Amino acid sequence: GSTLVAVQDAPGRRDLVLVEGALEGRPMVIPLASEPDTQFNAPRWSPDGRTVAVERHRRGRLSEIAIVDVETRTSRTIASDARARFVTPAWRPDGRAIVAAADFGEDLLDQKAPGGPFNLYEIEVDRSPAIEWRPLTQGSAGATWPDVSADGTSIVFVGYTVDGFDLFEMPYPASAPRASASLPPAAAPDDAGELEAAAPSEAATKYNPVRTLRPTSWSPVV
Predict the structure, then answer these.
(1) Is the pLDDT of residue 91 over 90?
(2) Which of 54, 109, 200, 221 is geometrically suited to a Cys-Cys bond with 43, CB 3.0 to 4.6 A?
């Protein structure tokens, strides 16, 4: 409760740093991990406070998930694949796994090949990055920025629909889920800060493109 973990821009890179003394009004920035031509993003403390899960993007490679030991300053990769981007890690409350978003859509190093939607995967911390990761969502709407409830029974994440970005909630899958096109958005938190159950989705209707044909914005060019 006294040390922050953050990222700090530097010429040609983005470092992983600790910020101590912020609560006393005397913040001191301490480098934790720095690599040339490398950007760190979205750091998250482990439940025991000994390590940090972070998104790492090296030049010429797709983003991956690494764990950095705070005491030894050493890091190891737990999720990396030449076909996929791994982003926005979050710890499972027991500290034995990380939930992260990954895009396995296309050969993403090919600038002409579009990527697919992000979905959530469970990554066991003590396993090699060469193994398969357990999928938690399989939807076309995408899922990023997950967070697991303190009791480990539910996941909240950001998904994308035709109406934009929304907050979604789902039970933590006990086994690999079936494919799903979309998930109902969760209700907004109430005054007590608790997230209520998601409202059921509307009944399916026949597709009609007419109501979405009108442009929603204009970009005039002179």
Answers:
(1) yes
(2) 54
Q: What is the 3-state secondary structure (H, E, C) of the chain?
A: CCEEEEEEEECCEEEEEEEECCCCCCCEEEEEECCCCEEEEEEEECCCCCEEEEEEEECCCCCEEEEEECCCCCEEEEECCCCCEEEEEEECCCCCEEEEEEECCCCCCCCCCCCCCCEEEEEECCCCCCCCCEECCCCCCCCEEEEECCCCCEEEEEEEECCEEEEEEEECCCCCCCCCCCCCECCCCCCCCCCCCCCCCCCCCCCCCHHHCCCCCCCCCC
Cα angle 123, 17, 146; round to 5? 35
Tell me how crowded residue 25 is: count the other CB atoms within 10 A of its CB.
6
Beta bridge partners of residue 121, listed in sequence order = 100, 135
Which residues are within 8 A (CB) of 219 and not within 5 positions of it... i.e. 6 or more apart?
none
pLDDT at 163: 85
Check: CB of residue 117 under 8 Å from CB of residue 96. no
pLDDT by residue (tens digit) across 28-56?
A: 999 999 999 999 999 999 999 999 999 99
Q: What's the pLDDT tens digit per position in 99-127?
A: 999 998 655 455 545 567 899 999 999 87
Token pair 């909630």: residue:
169
Output the pTM of the full model.
Answer: 0.72
